[in-house]
TrEMBL record:
Belongs to the COG7 family. GO terms for cellular component: Golgi membrane; Golgi transport complex. It is found in: Golgi apparatus membrane. It is a peripheral membrane protein. This is Conserved oligomeric Golgi complex subunit 7. Keywords: Golgi apparatus, Membrane, Protein transport, Transport. Pfam families: COG7.
């Protein structure tokens, strides 16, 4: 049996638990007494072994203590001895340091004197050498050895820099400049011959000569001058071929074609857009050949030399290039082709009145820009080994002819959109005869509704043109143009809406209103007969046409909202593509221009082919404005077209006002003279029988209004179905129809209540009749699920109550059910004294 002694060391050791546990672990056949006896024996033996081991280890430890004490004393003596030795060494080092410092200071002075003496000696040698070189330089030039002459001039330059500004050598300095110019002139003819005949060795030798005298810039200028001529000839061949073609045709065809040419001078010309790709191909082929040759002839300079050639070429051709682009854009439209003018001429105002920038003009410009973009991509591939800044400058030069057009892009787009909006058929409605007003109204509303998607398509096309032509660099200008154009379009809709008011008959006042309504205020009986007529088909067609105007407002609101959301998403994509954070930080580091090394490299590396970045890098102020807009576009509350958004909401409000005026106008017409009806003051008729002296039926004016209100839901149903089919939201459409129904019913109730307040006196017969009229209108409102206004119910209660019981009614009610001011008014017109 094994015994675990670990539990004996536990602080919470319980002997009883341990004995019980040991007893439970015995073999079932063993007795408890035998098991405990064996356990006691084993514990006693183990305790004796532990005691013996402890005695043995204690004795050994006591014997080791004196030996450890002796070792400690010996180590302490050694430490004292070592500290004494170190102190002596430090004292010797301090003495040596003092004497060494004095020696080093003396040696430094000696070394300074030595260096000055050596410099003076070298200067004297340079001065002597400069005098000797100045005397022998003419002989070197006379020998015709250009490398030796370059070496001599370089040595003279070195000597002059060594002697400094010494008055005695001022004439030598002037002589050196003249000699360097002279040597450069001697090199130029040989350099021209070597470059023209592709003599690599000669070019390299001449290059070394120019570098030796610090005139490498001359090599760049000379190389550019020589190789610019073939490219310029390619460009000028276009004009030459055009003139030759024109002269040949005139000579061959005679006067007839000559007259045609005068009337349309461009019809016989080769289109610039057809010739430009071939020009780019030839230039690219020429540059590829130069790149390969310069890699051999100028292995250290070709990465900047060939791009420099293209930059200088584009700078030379820029003005003429811009002019050709301008004329090419004008050729696509007959009006400008006949005048030999283009977009820039139209924008400058140098054109006959009425000539406008058209979409075809801008499309032609974008087509040319795409050709240049393809050429720029090839150039980027060809010059991929060049520095990023060199590549950036080169591509900016390639796109430079389009800079004037991009600068005026906002004006171009505004002119195009304004012209396109003006061409949309939004003729105002014209009042027509009976039977044709509904048709005129419906046709005008149809034109308004159909124009909305047309305008959205035009705006979307403008956004696509902006991205295609500018890469988004003019997005801020585009937004302003779109906002202005939307204002122009909504203003046109507002004007059309004004013309609809006359057609709908809701803008007539005074005598005209009386004639339009067909009422005569002098004859109450005539008025009663007039209002008895029901709504005819023409009136309902006007109502239905007016309701359709709501779809115009709904369509304008939804379409403009979707377009604005799409525009905001486009701006967000532009923010990403232009690497806004990197470019913005570069601009912040340099407020005047993006010329910081790290920032500029980051921009070039990320957007070297981005036409927007190529334009923005030179106009940091514009870039900041654009990036501010792009930052704001990330907020969902941002309105890309802020003024247009406000005007759309205002237009919707105007439409709602017009529709309400139309829907309520017929009610207003029938209720216009209710307060002056003679029935209110009519006396009771005397008869021999106990018959009621009032009509049991409501009067025609109120039944006409009731029938109109009950029929109105049927008129709103087609409109609700149209909204439901468009928005797939039946509940919203039903709510829309119910809202308008309630609005008209509330308006009718308000008009009726206003008329009731205008009654000055009412007889008992009139009170009974008015009570019947109010009860009918209340039933109509209940049928429309509208609550009965307290004022109207008070009128009905007070009028249906006999005159002698009205006072008791008011006392018993106490204002719980009745509207007290209205009840007092009824008492006043019924001549009931409440005092």
């Amino acid at each position: 049996m094994m015994i675990d002694l670990g539990s004996f060391s536990d602080e919470k050791f319980d002997p009883r638990k341990w004995i019980n546990a040991a007893t439970q672990s015995r073999h079932p056949q063993d007795s408890v007494e035998k098991h405990l006896t064996d356990l006691e024996m084993k514990l006693q033996m183990m305790s004796e072994e532990i005691a013996a081991s402890l005695d043995e280890q204690s004795s050994g430890a006591i014997l080791r203590v004196p030996r450890a004490s002796r070792d400690v004393i010996r180590l302490r003596d050694d430490a004292v001895s070592l500290r004494s030795s170190v102190s002596g060494i430090l004292l010797k080092l301090k003495k040596a340091e003092g004497s060494s410092a004095e020696s080093i200071a003396a040696l430094a002075k000696v070394d300074t004197v030595k260096q000055r003496m050596e410099a003076a000696y070298e200067t004297l040698q340079d001065a002597a050498g400069l005098t000797q070189l100045s005397a022998s330089v003419e002989d070197v030039f006379a020998s015709g050895d250009l490398p030796r002459a370059a070496e001599t001039l370089a040595n003279m330059r070195h000597c002059l820099s060594a002697v400094g500004e010494v008055a005695e050598f001022a004439n030598v300095r002037k002589q050196l400049e003249v000699l360097e110019d002279r040597l450069e002139e001697m090199v130029q003819p040989r350099l021209s011959d070597a470059l023209s005949n592709r003599k690599v060795d000669a070019v390299q030798d001449l290059r070394q000569i120019l570098i030796r005298i610090g005139r490498f810039k001359s090599l760049e200028l000379h190389y550019t001058k020589i190789h610019l001529k073939p490219i310029r000839k390619l460009w000028e061949d276009f004009g030459s071929r055009q003139r030759a073609s024109k002269l040949a045709i005139e000579k061959r065809e005679g006067e007839r074609l000559s007259n045609i040419t005068e009337s349309s001078p461009n019809m016989l010309m080769i289109p610039f857009s057809s010739w430009l790709p071939s020009f780019y191909d030839e230039v690219l082929l020429y540059l590829e050949q130069e790149w390969k040759w310069c890699m051999i002839a100028f292995p250290d300079d070709y990465r900047a030399l060939v791009p420099k050639l293209l930059i200088e070429t584009m700078g030379t051709l820029n003005a003429n290039f811009v002019s050709h682009i301008n004329l090419a854009t004008g050729e696509v439209v007959p009006e400008t082709r006949s005048l030999v003018k283009g977009i820039l001429d139209i924008l400058s105002g140098d054109m006959p009145k009425g000539t406008k920038v058209q979409t075809k003009h801008l499309e032609a410009l974008i087509e040319l820009h795409n050709m240049t973009g393809a050429f720029a991509r090839n150039i980027q591939h060809l010059f991929s080994e060049s520095d990023l800044q060199v590549l950036l400058d080169t591509l900016k030069a390639v796109y430079s002819p389009y800079a004037p057009y991009k600068h005026k892009y906002g004006h171009m787009e505004r002119a195009i959109l304004s012209s396109e909006i003006a061409e949309i058929d939004l003729r105002g409605a014209v009042a027509r005869g009976v039977g044709a007003q509904g048709i005129e109204l419906s046709e005008t509303v149809r034109r308004m509704e159909e124009s909305i998607p047309q305008v959205v398509v035009l705006l979307e096309a403008a956004v696509e043109r902006c991205i295609s032509f500018t890469g988004g660099s003019e997005a801020d200008e585009l937004i302003l143009a779109l906002d202005d154009i939307m204002l122009q379009y909504i203003s046109a809709l507002q004007e059309t809406l004004k013309s609809l008011r006359s057609v709908c008959g809701v803008d007539i006042t005074g005598e005209g209103a009386k004639k339009e309504m067909g009422t005569d205020r002098k004859e109450g009986t005539h008025n009663a007969r007039k209002v008895d007529t029901s709504f005819d088909e023409e009136e309902w067609s006007i109502v239905q046409g007016a309701l359709q105007i709501l779809t115009v407002a709904d369509c304008l609101t939804s379409r403009s909202s979707v377009f604005e959301a799409s525009l905001r998403a486009t701006l967000a994509r532009l923010s990403t593509s232009l690497s806004l954070s990197i470019f913005g930080s570069s601009l912040d580091q340099n407020q005047s221009h993006v010329n910081d090394g790290n920032g500029e490299s980051s921009l070039a590396g990320r957007a070297v082919l981005d036409v927007a970045a190529l334009r923005l890098v030179d106009v940091p102020d514009k870039a900041r404005r654009l990036f501010n807009v792009l930052d704001q576009s990330k907020d969902t509350r941002f309105h890309a077209l802020p003024l247009a958004s406000q005007r759309v909401a205002a237009f919707a409000d105007t439409v709602n006002d017009l529709v309400y005026d139309v829907l309520i106008s017929k009610v207003r017409q029938r209720l216009s003279d209710v307060s002056r009806l003679p029935i209110w003051s009519a006396a009771e008729e005397q008869n021999a029988f106990a018959l009621p002296s009032f009509s049991a039926y409501p009067q025609p004016y109120v039944t006409s209004v009731g029938e109109y209100l009950l029929t109105l839901p049927q008129q709103l149903e087609p409109l609700a179905e149209g909204i439901s089919s468009n928005d797939t939201n039946t509940e919203e459409a039903q709510f829309f129809a119910t809202e308008w129904m309630f609005k008209v019913a509330e308006g009718a109730t308000a008009l009726y209540t206003e008329q009731l307040r205008g009654i000055q006196y009412i007889s008992e017969r009139g009170a009974q009749q008015l009570s019947a009229d109010i009860e009918y209108l209340s039933n109509v409102l209940s049928a429309l699920s509208m609550p009965i206004p307290p004022i109207l119910s008070t009128y009905h209660t007070c009028l249906s109550t006999p005159r002698d019981q009205v006072r008791d009614l008011m006392k018993s009610d106490g204002g719980t059910q009745l509207d007290l001011p209205t009840a007092h008014l009824v008492c006043k017109i019924r001549r009931v004294n409440l005092d």
